C-alpha cells in the first residue's frame, strides 16, 4: 500500500474532480481556494495536502480549516477526500506561460496534468472550470496542429 505524501498545496473539489493548487507561500493558493469555494467547489485541504494513490485529503489537524489572510482561520464544511484530476501551478508575471503553451505534462507526485495559472486573474476560477471540463470530456483542448 502506498504511504501518503504530504505536500504544500491546497485542494478543492467539483463533483468527483479534485484540483490541486500548488505554489510557494504567498502565491495565492488560499485566496484562490476561497474564490473556488464561493463558486460552489468544496474545500478539501488548505495549505497542506495528503496524497495517497491519486486521492487528496487534508491532514487531520487541518481538516475543515481555511486561512483567510487579514481575517484569520475559518472552520467550515469540507470534503474528506477527492481524486485529483489536475494540478494548477500558480505563477505570476513574468513567469506566466506563453499564450499557447505546449500540451500539459504530468505532475511527478500527483501524476495528473499540470497547467499554469495566474491566481490574480479575474478569470482564474473560470479557467480551472474549463480545465476540469476538458479532462472530463465536456470540452476539447486543441493543440496547434488542430487549429
Automatic annotation (TrEMBL):
Alphabetical keyword list: Transferase
Q: Which domain of life is it from?
A: Bacteria
What InterPro entries is this protein classified in? Hpr_kin/Pase_C (IPR011104), P-loop_NTPase (IPR027417)
HPr kinase/phosphorylase C-terminal domain: residues covered: 6-75
- From the UniProt record, which GO molecular function terms apply? ATP binding; phosphorelay sensor kinase activity
Q: Does the keyword rRNA-binding apply?
A: no
Q: Which GO terms describe its biological process?
A: regulation of carbohydrate metabolic process
Q: What is this protein called?
A: Phosphotransferase
Gene source species: Komagataeibacter swingsii
Amino acid at each position: 500500500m502506498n504511504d501518503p505524501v504530504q505536500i504544500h498545496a491546497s485542494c478543492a473539489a467539483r463533483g468527483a474532480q479534485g484540483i490541486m493548487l500548488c505554489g510557494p507561500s504567498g502565491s495565492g493558493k488560499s485566496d484562490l481556494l476561497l474564490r473556488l469555494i464561493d463558486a460552489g467547489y468544496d474545500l478539501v485541504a488548505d495549505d497542506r495536502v495528503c496524497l495517497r494513490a491519486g486521492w487528496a485529503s487534508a491532514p487531520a489537524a487541518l481538516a475543515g480549516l481555511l486561512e483567510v489572510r487579514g481575517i484569520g482561520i475559518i472552520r467550515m464544511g469540507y470534503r474528506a477526500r477527492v481524486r485529483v484530476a489536475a494540478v494548477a501551478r500558480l505563477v505570476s508575471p513574468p513567469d506566466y506561460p506563453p499564450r499557447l503553451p505546449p500540451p500539459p505534462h504530468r505532475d511527478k507526485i500527483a501524476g495528473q496534468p499540470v497547467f499554469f495559472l495566474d491566481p490574480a486573474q479575474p478569470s482564474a476560477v473560470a479557467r480551472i472550470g474549463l480545465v476540469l471540463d476538458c479532462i472530463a470530456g465536456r470540452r476539447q483542448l486543441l493543440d496547434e496542429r488542430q487549429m
